[in-house]
């Protein structure tokens, strides 16, 4: 709980901080025109029209407005989702481990990974000056209620909650990975390459997606399918996740 409070404080501090676009990283994502000028001034392999003269590293792929908006939404949704994940486990864990103490290491492992994801997205939204979702307090309350209520229903329901959430979140991360891979393919066709920061973000999204799918496996191994009533519970949680994602993309 102490850790969670620290994480939330950190998120709020990031969202309030007036971070100036000083790093080249920021410029390359959110001010591509500025970066093009920088590259034209600083990279001797570029000719006046911005084309590579054939020596040195390939020209960087510059994101268009739609792509920047996609990343903006992705980071906002991911931060909100990881906040929710930490709160779900915080509310579930005491109830689950009280009757099933052997699950303590697993619950801690999953919580620790979610806390790491949340820290990662707090840092990314601060770095790229992405506005956190205005629904933050609503998701905080909803996630805590979801964690508490499924924990109260028992181990199987808590695991069914993880299964439902990770099914939606895993496929959401997958869509983001596929989108960035399509940019990479387009860059290759043009003889360009993705910015190093974007490559790193792609690797981060892939790593987190894999960890979410690992949680999904743990849930199934721990009898999520035995929850009663399984279908309505999982359907409602998955519907809630999809709705929260759609809202957080915009609001
Ligand atoms: Fe996560
Ligand atoms: Fe997760």
TrEMBL record:
Pfam families: COQ7. It is a peripheral membrane protein. Belongs to the COQ7 family. Its EC number is 1.14.99.60. GO terms for molecular function: 3-demethoxyubiquinol 3-hydroxylase activity; metal ion binding; oxidoreductase activity, acting on paired donors, with incorporation or reduction of molecular oxygen, NAD(P)H as one donor, and incorporation of one atom of oxygen. One of its GO terms (biological process) is ubiquinone biosynthetic process. GO terms for cellular component: extrinsic component of mitochondrial inner membrane. Fe cation 1 binds at residues 82, 114, 117, 212. It is found in: Mitochondrion inner membrane. The gene is COQ7. Coiled coil: none annotated. It comes from Aspergillus wentii DTO 134E9. It catalyses: a 5-methoxy-2-methyl-3-(all-trans-polyprenyl)benzene-1,4-diol + AH2 + O2 = a 3-demethylubiquinol + A + H2O. Binds 2 iron ions per subunit. Catalyzes the hydroxylation of 2-polyprenyl-3-methyl-6-methoxy-1,4-benzoquinol (DMQH2) during ubiquinone biosynthesis. Has also a structural role in the COQ enzyme complex, stabilizing other COQ polypeptides. Its cofactor is Fe cation. The keyword Zinc-finger does not apply. Component of a multi-subunit COQ enzyme complex, composed of at least COQ3, COQ4, COQ5, COQ6, COQ7 and COQ9. This is 5-demethoxyubiquinone hydroxylase, mitochondrial. It comes from the Eukaryota.
